[in-house]
Amino acid sequence: MKPIFLFALLLAGVATALGIAFLARADDAGPAAPIYGVTLPQGYRQWELIAPAEEAAPLDELRVVLGNPVAVRAFRDNIRPFPDGAVLVKLAWKRAPSADFATATVPGAATTVQVMEKDSARYAATGGWGYGRFIDGQPADEAQHRTCHACHAARVKQRDYVFTRYAP
User: Fold this and answer.
1) Are residue 9 and residue 74 in the same domain, yes or no?
2) Is the dihedral of CA 124, 128, 134, 140 positive or negative?
3) What is the per-residue pLDDT across 17-36, written as a single tens digit (0 to 9) for each?
4) Does residue 127 surpass a pLDDT of 70?
5) Three-state secondary-structure class, residue 166
6) What value, to the nearest 5°, has the Cα angle with vertex 161 and ends 95 and 41?
7) Domain tally for the chain?
8) Domain-embedded: residue 166
9) Bridging pattern class, strands 48-55 and 105-118
């Protein structure tokens, strides 16, 4: 075989392998949230901490907000509006008393994972953000998603619809 043919065959094999890997990632995205089509991002539990949060009664939750590298850079460099590709994930748990330290609380039962995904073209009608709310890895019902943008627009539109502030 001629070297150029072998090189073309090798390139075709690499392209096919990459195509198959890309399709596998897309198929593994999991169920999509109603209205916005947002899915749980792969590897989000390894993302960097943006900020902790605490929700008082009636929810009584401990929360953390994680960000992908695009979101982290935007927070650190104070880039607003957030660039397309920024993704924020909020994990929430019921607060539970610590068995080891009387005045401390620890995460109890998980309640939700909430996702905000910036894509100015796809989510133009909602300030460039798509929203997803997941309970036990499954999307919450459509009614719960209808309130997402309205709440963000009413309270933090001036901060590109983002409640979270970066914890230095």
Assistant:
1) no
2) negative
3) 333 333 233 345 789 999 99
4) yes
5) coil
6) 65
7) 2
8) no
9) unpaired
Closest CA to 125 of 41, 39, 35: 35
Provide the token pair at 101: 């330290």
Q: Which residues contact 62 (CB under 8 A, 6 or more apart)?
A: 52, 53, 54, 55, 92, 93, 94, 95, 105, 106, 107
d(CA 148, CA 45): 22
Runs of H (alpha helix) within 28-165: 69-76, 142-156
For residue 73, what are the contacts with CB-CB under 8 A and spacing of at least 6? 79
Beta pairing partners, 132: 115
Structure tokens at 52: 């902790």
How many C-beta neighbours within 10 Å does residue 31 have?
Answer: 12
Residue 168 belongs to some domain of the structure: no
Block residue for tokens 């009664």: 57
pTM for this structure? 0.81
Question: Are 137 and 115 found together in one domain?
Answer: yes
Let me know: does 64 contact 91? Beta carbons within 8 Å.
yes
Query: Does residue 165 belong to any structural domain of this protein?
Result: no
Query: CA–CA separation, 83 vs 86, rounded Å?
Result: 6
Domain boundaries, position 130: 31-159
The rounded distance, in Å, linking the Cα atoms of 103 and 113 is: 26
Residue pointed to by tokens 């104070």: 78
